[in-house]
Amino acid sequence: MPMETELKYLGVNLDDVRHRLQALGADFQGKRFESNIVFDDEQRSLKGRGILVRLRDDGRRILTLKRPPAGPVPEGVKAWDEHETRIDDPGVIETLLGTLGYAPAFSYEKVREEWILEGCHICLDQMPFGDFLEIEGDPLAIPVAASALGVKSCEASTKNYHQLNREHREAVGLEPRESFVFDSDKKKALLAQLSKASESGQIPHRS
C-alpha cells in the first residue's frame, strides 16, 4: 500500500505562494471545489483506529481509505497508507458501506488548488476556517519546497484538517462541531469564481 507523507503550513498567504510557484515554473494541475463525506460506525471505531474512509466529489468521485502505516514512519511528517479509486455511482458505495455498518459521520468542504514542484504535490487549500498550504512528497524534499515557497518560517503541522478545525473552534469560542462547510453565500461565490476561471481558461480541465 503506498505511503503518503505530508506537512501542512499554517498562517500562509496563498497569493504569495501562488506567485512563487509561477516564478519557479511549477506545473499547475487545476483548482476544484471539494465536498467530502467521512464514514464511520456509531462507536467511531474507525476514528479510534486512526482509519479514514472518505467519499469525495470534486467533479470526480473518489473513494479513499487512509490508515496508519504498518512500517516505520519518517520523523517530522504526517504519514498514511492510502488507497484511492474513482467510482461511477456514489449511491452504490454508500449502500455497500451502510451494509457494513458505516454511515456518514461528518462532512467538510474546501477549495483546493494543486501544483507540482520538484516532485512535490503542492496544495493551496481554502477552508471555511482559514487558508493552508499542504506539501506532499519525500520527507527530505518537503522542507526544501517549503523554503523555496517562502513558508519555512510558518508553523508546520502534522495534524489533519479535522483536528485543526476543532482547535480553531475552541480558540474562537465556538461550540464543538465536526463538520466544516462554507455558508451558502460563500459557497455560491466560490463556485461562481471557479466557473468563471474555468470558462476563461485559467483552470485547465483535468479528467
TrEMBL record:
Taxonomic superkingdom: Bacteria
Matching InterPro entries: Adenylyl_cyclase_CyaB, CYTH-like_dom_sf, CYTH_domain
Leader peptide range in chain numbering: none
CYTH domain residues: 2-167
Protein name stated in the entry: Adenylate cyclase
Organism expressing this protein natively: Desulfovibrio ferrophilus
